[in-house]
Amino acid sequence: MTQAIAVRRDGDAFQARVFWRKAACLLDPKSPVIQVGFESGPKGFDDVWVAYASERAPGDHEGNPILREHIQCKWHVSVNDFGYADLVDPEWINANKFSLLQRARAAQSVHASDGKGARFKLLTNWRVGQQDPLRRYIHQKSKTLRLKDLFDGTGDGSIAGKVRKLWREHLDIDDKELLLLARTLSLDTDSTSLDDHRAYLDLMFENRGLRRIPDNESSFVYDDIAFQWLAQGRLQFDKQTFREACKREGLLAGESLSCMTFGVKSFEHPFDRLEDRCTNVLDLIKYFDERAIRDQAEWITTLYPVLKGFLQTAAKANEYLRLILDAHITLAFAAGSILNIKSGRNVEIEQRTVHKNIWHASDMPSDPSWPQWEFDLQSLHESDGEMAVAVCLTHDVTAAVKAYVATTLPQASSLLIARPSGGAGARSVICGRHAFDLAESLALRLNQLRVQSKPALHLFIAAPNAFTFFFGQRQPGLGKTALYEYDFEGSHGGGYTQSLRLPV
Q1: Where do the domains of the chain lie?
Q2: Which neighbouring-strand residues pair with 36?
Q3: Strand extents, DSSP E, 15-174
Q4: Residue 460 to residues 64, 105, 177, 316, 401: CA-CA distances in angstroms?
Q5: Segment holding 349, helix H or strand E
Q6: Within the chain, how many helices (H) and strands (E) appear?
Q7: For the whole prediction, is pTM greater than 0.85?
Q8: pLDDT in tens, 86-139
Q9: SS3 (DSSP) at 387
């Protein structure tokens, strides 16, 4: 019984923290969020809902505005898998009669009869099974369904046909009606721990002027308050009523910070929409198919010029900037090259590693115990040619880099492998100061190795974006630089592909 109570409390805490992620945006006058609800809305998708201003609403995969998002939270104490068949099983959501898919269909019929304007999201710490057919039909950047692949014109005997047939017969509808439902569905995995959710909220509360709860306090009052408001019948809030409710509870610590936060995204974080908490966001997602760019020429012709204009505009109006880079390493490096060491701007980076932190070049005093570089310079052939560089902070990419260089870069005469002492991993970079120092020492080493001339560099980076940004700030002193992206998901053949050459 004690274990069951603990599990239920954790599930409630998960739901409450999702609510606060959305509701805190109501304290930001520039946020597109205009209403947030708790335990209200269509049955089966009533845990949390969000309404957006029509002129600033997020877009669906076809660019149509999503005016309302209804979220159903499904928390489990242990992580497991689910698949397309579970969505038609009432027991999977601990229901007696109606499945998740039936509830989604009922909600869609009422709130998005034409398949537009609303999204119905399952947010769970379970994941879609690796071998389940459903996995191939989910966009990794938006967690919506790949409609062209699922509704591909094949018969019921195909993989897509079997999924459609089960769902169609379960709902007693045809493919046309199923397509309207599928347009509105989102199946999102959130494996973030409750402690990490709390750490994320702490940063958000700081920016929104809400009272912060010290980490040493076991209880987190915000979890309970959401359910107290529920008991009082306060199920939905707009900007005014939410501020008043927070004031009555003594949650307002002061005015929101005036820190100007700018976001750049080339992929969508599973639950953290940058538009909800940034002053301005550069959205480059449309240029990519998952992590792969649709047209390689766009790196130079479109992405770099747009990024440069966005960051220069931000820097002209602000000497102090906070950047959130939900973006490829190429864009993080390019951002640093634009806001380089001589830009005169004070830049901090919101970094997601094990936890979310704000990293700055002077956020901590340097510590000699931090991991330092271990360099391995390898000669590839006898000439004074170009240099390949494998930066192995989060992953050791040496083997993949060697394979690419051997087949594609005959002009590279040497390979510098840069590894942290202690090995690559998520904890290899401690803080912003550490990232800054590593970037500076790597740039120094590269310049020492190229005293007589500065042949072009080919950079293969596996590192936190904060490090990559700080390293990019040194690009003017490094000279000609080519960047490369790795196809981690293997959806485009695997391996590396050249992205951007700097300077443009």
Answers
A1: 33-189, 261-359, 373-502
A2: 50, 237
A3: 33-38, 48-52, 68-74, 81-82, 118-124, 127-128
A4: 37, 46, 47, 31, 7
A5: strand 346-352
A6: 15, 21
A7: no
A8: 999 999 998 889 999 999 999 999 999 999 999 999 999 899 998 999 999 998
A9: strand
